[in-house]
Design a protein that fits this description.
By secondary structure, the protein is of the alpha+beta class. The chain has one domain: Dimeric alpha+beta barrel (Alpha-Beta Plaits, 2-Layer Sandwich). The chain contains 2 helices and 6 strands; from the N terminus they run βαββββαβ. The strands form 2 sheets. The protein has a 4-stranded antiparallel β-sheet. A hairpin with a 2-residue loop joins strand 3 and strand 4. Helix 1 runs antiparallel to helix 2. Belongs to the YciI family.
Length: 129
Amino acid sequence: MRFMSLIRSEEPNPAGPPPPELFEAVGELAQDLSVSGALVDMGGLLPSSAGAIVSLVDGRISAVDGPFTEAKELIGGYAVLEVRSREEAVELSRRLLRAHQRHWPGWQGSCELRQIEDADHPHPDLPRA
């Protein structure tokens, strides 16, 4: 099973920028998860000022450059996990949040887990061939 883990927090973060110790701890966690085969990919995202939102509304496509001031929380990082169960994905996400808790005092956020659809795990509302 594959899961996408999305780290959400406020932007700008009231706790300030991420400290170097957090990068070290997340790097060590990534190494551990890579060795075990659980980590497919992981990365942090730049602030929304470096991005854009492209939307389709009422038949019109538009693009708005960041920063996204109307958003309370934004995705600040992601990981793609290859695991045996949803419970394992939850535990790995807890480990990532514990690293934030230990190395970035005052940081608050969440980790959204979403299972990735594939041939073995199709969308439940779509007809099967």
